[in-house]
Design goal:
It is built from 3 helices and 5 strands; from the N terminus they run αβββαβαβ. The protein is of the alpha/beta class. The chain has a domain of 79 residues: Nucleotidyltransferase, domain 5. The protein is elongated.
Length: 145
């Protein structure tokens, strides 16, 4: 008679437990997480801005002079309400040259129509730059939205 050590069917009475005990692993991970949180420097939520320094000087007594140049859809140019034909480049150059010679140049507001060809606006801007007009800006951009 032989002694039978295990059942041939494998009913599970003497099987070895294969599951991993995860409790020590979780304890180690929690300790590492706490150490990580403690060692991180505290973040400051501040935005560094260079604010303007208050100026105690009085504001200028006279508002700056403004020259308004309107460019219509067909290339007709308006200079402070005075109509200049599209091909009359010499008159525009004379007026812009006069502005460029002033030490404290007036502001030039260029207001093109949204239907005008770009060449008319580019001609005015290039002429102003070539002659030395420094205070020029395009206004009326809300019509292009």
């Amino acid at each position: 008679m032989a002694m039978q050590v295990g059942s041939p069917e494998g009913d599970g009475d003497g099987d070895v437990m294969v599951d991993i005990n995860t409790t020590p692993l979780i304890d180690v991970m929690l300790v590492l997480l706490i150490m990580f949180i403690v060692t991180i420097p505290i973040q400051t939520h501040a935005v560094k801005m260079n604010m303007p320094v208050p100026n105690n000087a009085a504001p200028p007594p006279v508002p700056p002079e403004i020259v308004r140049i309107d460019v219509d859809f067909d290339g007709t140019i308006g200079w402070n309400g005075e109509v200049i034909e599209a091909g009359d480049r010499a008159t525009i150059e004379q007026k812009l040259y006069a502005i460029a010679q002033i030490p404290d140049q007036p502001e030039v507001h260029l207001r093109p129509n949204k239907l005008v060809e770009y060449k008319h606006v580019a001609m005015i801007m290039a002429t102003a730059q070539r002659l030395g007009v420094t205070k020029i800006g395009i206004v009326g951009n809300e019509q292009f939205l």
